[in-house]
């Protein structure tokens, strides 16, 4: 993204990054070739940026009974329900990269129910979708359905945490007009 292009529709000038966040941005540049705009969007407030990075990294990268691909698939299904342009582009690219299957990624972006998924993955995404569009209807039968497909209670927590995080992130991205990095469109194609 060019320096003159806005990351979000709000005028929030960046704060001075501390050493840890400077190193984190440098690592993004090294690994991805760019700094994701979601990080630039939070750059106006160092405390919020650090909290976002800590939660995102924990949910998406820390050890879990869910694979990184499964967590990214949840992010995309939730973002599809919420019509979040930023997250559909960014996390759709992650699904393409992790799965090596552009057709799978694009289908989940459009409608995960049309994707060729095993029963376990479908149950996981059904739960994440329901938690997104009708959270008040989640009950023991939903958790039991996940257990039937081999998910532990910790896995259920992780599915809910990833879905919850992306519901929050989708709303921030939509409210602020967050623009996806152009690089995401080309990633893993």
- Reading the helices and strands in chain order gives HHHHHHHHHH
Radius of gyration, in angstroms, nearest whole number: 17 Å
Number of structural units classed as domains: 2
What helical percentage do the residues reach?
55-70%
Unreliable stretches (pLDDT < 50, length at least 5) are: none
Structural class label? mainly alpha
Shape: globular
Annotation, overall tally of beta strands: 0
* Biggest sheet record: none
Going by CATH, the homologous superfamily of the largest domain would be AhpD-like
What's the end-to-end separation, in Å? 20 Å
Mean pLDDT: 96
Could you tell me the CATH topology label of the largest domain. Answer: AhpD-like
Strand content: under 5%
Q: Please write the CATH class name of the largest domain.
A: Mainly Alpha
Instruction: Using the 3D structure, state the CATH architecture of the largest domain.
Output: Up-down Bundle
What's the helix count?
10
């Amino acid at each position: 993204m060019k320096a003159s292009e806005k990351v979000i529709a709000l005028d929030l000038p960046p704060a001075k990054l501390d050493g840890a966040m400077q190193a984190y941005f440098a690592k993004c540049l090294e690994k991805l070739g760019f700094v994701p705009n979601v990080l630039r969007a939070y750059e106006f407030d160092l405390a919020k940026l650090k909290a976002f990075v800590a939660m995102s990294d924990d949910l998406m990268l820390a050890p879990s009974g869910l694979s990184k691909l499964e967590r990214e698939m949840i992010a995309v299904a939730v973002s599809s329900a919420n019509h979040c342009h930023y997250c559909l582009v960014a996390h759709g690219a992650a699904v393409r990269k992790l799965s090596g299957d552009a057709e799978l990624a694009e289908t989940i972006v459009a409608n995960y129910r049309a994707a060729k998924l095993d029963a376990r993955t479908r149950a996981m995404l059904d739960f994440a979708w329901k938690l997104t569009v009708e959270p008040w209807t989640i009950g023991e039968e939903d958790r039991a359905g996940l257990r039937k497909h081999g998910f532990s209670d910790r896995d259920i927590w992780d599915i809910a945490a990833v879905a919850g995080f992306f519901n929050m992130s989708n709303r921030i991205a939509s409210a602020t007009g967050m623009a996806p990095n152009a690089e995401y469109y080309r990633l893993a194609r």
